[in-house]
Structure to design on (158 residues):
C-alpha cells in the first residue's frame, strides 16, 4: 500500500506545544511545527532564517552575567546586563556610557592623561571607556582598570 504524505503549506502558528501534538483535528495543528530551530514563522505562513549574532562587548570583569531584554516603548529597546552588584545597559549595539570629559593630552613616558574638564566625577577603580580619535569606539571599547585620579582643589578668587 502506498504511503501518503501531507503537504504543509503554512507555518503561521509556529511551534506547537508537546501537549497539543495529538490534536490533529485542530486548525492550528495543520499550520504548526513540532520543532522550529533557527527559523521564525512569518504571519504570512512562511519561515525566515534567524538572524546571526555579533560581539558587542565583554561582560564586566569577564564574569558570568544574565542578559535581560527590556522594551520601554516603541523604538526604545535595551538589553540589561545583571552581574554581581552591577547593572549595565546596552542600546544600539553598544554599552551606554556617559560622556565625562575629553582627553586633551597623553604622556606616554609617565602613562598619564589630562582631561579637559574641571570636575569629572570619576573615582579610583571606576571603569573608563576610551574612544578613538574621531569618536568611533573600538570594538567593545578600550577598557582601563585600576586608574587613580588626582583631583586638584578649585582655585578661590577673592
Amino acid at each position: 500500500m502506498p504511503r501518503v504524505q501531507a503537504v504543509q503549506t503554512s507555518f503561521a502558528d509556529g511551534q506547537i506545544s508537546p501537549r497539543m501534538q495529538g490534536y490533529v483535528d485542530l486548525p492550528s495543528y495543520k499550520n504548526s511545527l513540532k520543532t522550529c530551530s533557527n527559523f521564525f514563522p512569518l504571519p504570512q505562513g512562511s519561515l525566515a532564517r534567524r538572524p546571526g549574532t555579533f560581539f558587542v562587548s565583554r561582560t564586566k570583569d569577564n564574569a558570568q552575567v544574565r542578559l535581560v531584554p527590556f522594551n520601554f516603548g516603541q523604538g526604545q529597546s535595551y538589553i540589561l546586563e545583571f552581574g554581581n552588584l552591577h547593572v549595565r545597559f546596552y542600546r544600539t549595539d553598544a554599552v551606554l556610557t556617559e560622556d565625562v570629559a575629553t582627553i586633551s593630552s597623553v604622556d606616554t613616558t609617565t602613562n598619564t592623561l589630562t582631561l579637559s574638564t574641571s570636575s569629572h566625577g570619576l573615582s579610583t577603580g571606576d571603569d573608563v571607556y576610551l574612544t578613538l580619535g574621531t569618536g568611533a569606539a573600538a570594538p567593545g571599547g578600550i577598557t582601563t582598570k585600576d586608574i587613580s585620579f588626582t583631583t586638584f582643589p578649585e582655585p578661590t578668587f577673592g
About this structure: Residues 65 and 85 are 11 Å apart (CA to CA). The chain is about 5% helix and 30% strand.
